[in-house]
Amino acid sequence: PEMLDGVAAGTADMAFMFSGAFPDRLPLSQIMGLPTMLFGTSTQASQVWWELHNKYKEHQEEYTKAGVKALWFQMPGPNQIEGNVKVETLADMNGLKIAVDVREELDAFKLLGAVPIIVAGGEKYVSLQTNVISSSTQNFNGSNTWKTYEVTKYITENVDISYRICPTLINLDTYNKMPNDIKKIFDELSDGATMSKSMAEAYDKSNESYRTQLNAYHTSKGNPPIYRLPDTEKAKWRDMIKPVIDTWVNGVEAKGLPGKSMLADIKTLAEKYK
CA-CA distance, 170 to 270, in Å (whole number)? Predict the structure, then answer.
């Protein structure tokens, strides 16, 4: 939560940041964390986000107004469901105590009948271990990072409920004060389109590798293999959480921001980069 102000103040020149921590200061960025359930890979989602950023000056301005420049975007992987309660149908959501990452994800799980709570990544292990929560939204990279697989039994994939939305930022003054020859080299090496795609491809490779390892780990412990949510069931969930997306669109439109057109573009771009 201190990263945005830390880079803006020059405490650090650059940061890899989670935009979901700033829903009111970076409102348009939250669109990539909405529970659209449209993105199955980081490569797909990250390229969509970069294209949106280039198209909408309002999206660029929410960073520059904060005193930073967004260099590239990456999405660590779609959130699935990991926990100690089997989740295969909507009925399994009823009363499910589940940790989530962002406000819109919390609102979505409420509509699905769960009891969600926002929990930081580093706190998920103990929360699962002590049954404060029974499940968590998590990508396979996150399960390895936070070791939550050690204290869970079930994973449901093809949920793709949302993403952690992570730009890499630089202090605006630091960037602007670079000599032109250095800035040219810096821009070439940190080209947003190239970096967004290559970072995402690395995440996808890592995510798939950890998926294989997690599946092997759970079967070795006598737990069920990873369960894939059927597309028909996923479609039901998507229909039920649509009001969360509508609320977000109406909220940013009320501020004079292009939420409606960005959402329309997301649906088109999701197909383009599928």
Answer: 28
Q: Are 272 and 50 in contact (CB under 8 A)?
A: no
Strands 80-83 and 68-74: unpaired
pLDDT (tens digit per residue) in 47-95 = 999 999 999 999 999 999 999 999 999 998 899 999 999 999 999 999 9
Give one word for 181, left, alpha or beta, with left for phi > 0 and alpha for psi -120 to 50: alpha
Specify the pLDDT at position 57.
Answer: 97
Average pLDDT for the chain: 96
How many other C-beta atoms are found inside a 10 Å radius of the C-beta of residue 9?
A: 11
Give the number of other CB atoms < 10 A from CB of residue 136.
Answer: 29
Residue type, 123: E
State both tokens at 133: 């929560």
Across 14-42, average pLDDT = 94
Average pLDDT of 168-179? 97
Nearest alpha-carbon partner for 108 in 75, 69, 137, 144: 137
- Phi-psi region at 131: left, alpha or beta (left = phi > 0; alpha = psi -120 to 50): left
Q: What are phi and psi of 70, to 5 degrees?
A: -85, 120
Pairing between strand 154-157 and 166-171?
A: unpaired
Q: What single-letter DSSP state applies at residue 204? A: H
